[in-house]
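Side project, low priority. Logging it here so it doesn't get lost.
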Amino acid sequence: MLFHAWVDTGFWAQALINRVKTINNGKNLNLYDTRILVYLLNTNIEAFSKHSSMYQFSFLDIILTPVYIFLLISLGKRIESKNIDNDVSYQYFTKGLYFKFIGAIALCCVYLFYYGGGDTINYMGGTKVLMRLGTQNMSALFDILFNGMSREAYSQFNASTGYPEYSYAKPEEWRVIRFTFPASVLGLGLYIPASLIIAYFSYLGNFKLYQVFCYNFPGIYKKLAIPLLFIPSAVFWGSGILKDTFTFSAIGWYTYGFYMAFIRRENMRKNIITIIIASWLILSIKSYIFIALLPGSLIWLNFERLRSIKSTFIRTLAMPIVFGIVGGGGVFIMSQLGSSLGDRYSSVDKALQTAVVTQQDLKRSEYQGASFDIGNFDPTIGGVVSKMPVAIVAGLFRPFIWEARNPVMLISGLENLIFLGLTIRLLLATGFGFFTRIGKSPLLIFSLIFSLFFAFAVGLTTSNFGSLVRYKIPCEPFYLGLLYVLFYLKKEDFDTNKTEEDVALINEEEEEKDSYKRLRSKTGFIVK
């Protein structure tokens, strides 16, 4: 890092010398020219340091990071102790939180010391610029926080506040900066403490997704913690100050709110508000994720209604109606959300054109040998559908282990190897029963549709593994959670529609077993 800083500074110095010589008609530098050079050089070094990744890291990060971890873990333990008697899923609340903090700190270190910069550094730098702006012009700060960045608002920055990395032409990036700003203030403007605060609040959404699976399959709640809370790449890329952290958490809140409001029909007002806020957050940062969530959500809701019909004959007749409602409802909602989705996704034609342009742009960029190619395709429905198999494979299972080029990609490659191995094993063991079991659980239907749709979209439009391993994390818990349910649950467990009393009884039995184990470990006696 320091070497690169000196090299860049040397390039700047030589460029400035040449610039001053040009002004002086090629003559050697005199005393006056030297003073100009020193001034310009200091100005450029200062500008360089403010944009350097190490500028976001200080000795206070090392001192205060353990303090913030202690405070946030204490808060997490209070939540766990308050709810664990009524919900055994909270046994994994602080365990998952520890893992989340490890992911957040690891991501900070990778961007600071390995990549030497990146989006997360720039987002944090943007919050610091806003903090300095607030000391000079509080009304301008609140205007940016509540109304977003504009050309007029950008003009409020000056040499003393510093200039953010992103201009007013980057609205999605500025939304991340605005969402991060409260955490930056609470973290005293320190990079790692602010990242830990973001990790804590984003974890709440991840845990809600875990609870949805636990409520539907309470008998394997311990095993479900692995795919829902402990996937290394999902935790790593979904824990820092990045777009993916906010959208990943919002997906969890959306799924939980949808399940509680429309499936269990509990606290309708509260959970509908949760859905609205989560949807707004997704649409604000990555609107295409909402496009992937919508079809599965509508099918989930309608299959729950179909399952309540006792007659197989009537269910069969109702199936085409269900898909008609899903298709019509999806088109209607998409048309109503046209402006929120942005111009790129406001119509099918524009969405297809966006997919082609995005893939071609990424393909032309240089990613240090980490690129891959699924082939060219036309911006038509036929052209896109022709790439569906290879795109889904790329979105779910690539990079393969032999395609890894760095430690971060290696971790993703190992995960993908597990994903692929479980998928092949289940297909060989169950055959068509694989899809039959999924069809008996509306949650699994939703998980499969979202996973395949999202993997298809990401695999189609991404041409380098560096982006792929980060973009694909929203579908990983759904797909691996689905595999775990199919792998560990017996066939007859799919044929029952458990009531809340059944779930409570299973939770009580599991908690009683855990109490016996804890008592035995403490006393050394076997409790029967």
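Brief comment: DSSP finds 25 helices and no strands in the chain.
Revisit when time allows.
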